[in-house]
Write a structure and sequence with these properties.
This protein has 154 residues and is α/β, with parallel strands linked by helices. It has one domain: Glutaredoxin (3-Layer(aba) Sandwich). It is 38% helix and 23% strand. It contains 6 helices and 6 strands; from the N terminus they run H-E-H-E-H-E-H-E-H-E-E-H. The protein has a 6-stranded mixed sheet with strand order 1-4-3-2-5-6. Helix 3 links the parallel strand 2 and strand 3. The longest helix is centred in the N-terminal third of the chain and has 15 residues.
Amino acid sequence: MKRWLAILLLAPALATAGSLKPLAAADVPALLAPPAHGERLIALWALDCAYCEPNLQALARLQQAHPEAIELVTVATDDMTHEAAIEKRLAAAGMTAWPARAYADATPERLNYLLDPEWGGETPRVLVIRADGSRHGYSGELTTKQLQALTPNP
């Protein structure tokens, strides 16, 4: 009985473990497609980024407050070969509940350009894609004003 209880308690953790998926150039159009409703926030971050974890956590809180209106996806700009380190950092930040991707292309600069031609590659970066097809990007640590702009109107 104790064994089954332990398995049941570990099942959610195991379900999210290893959920990191590669992001190649062919995957970018689907990621950038407008959502059916609300907005998709694509949180671009890197292992060596000091402001990325607080940004990820702020976006997670925003999504949790508006689960029907906001879809959150994290994208590590680090290569997928760093999978263990990326997953460890996401777990430490409490970000395992959201879809996670990591670069898996021989030319990361190409992925940067495909994601946002206006972006210079700095992290953190948040791409906002709305159901109406409009897009906006924010670079750097998110301010209170920027987070308010991301908050859906009731």
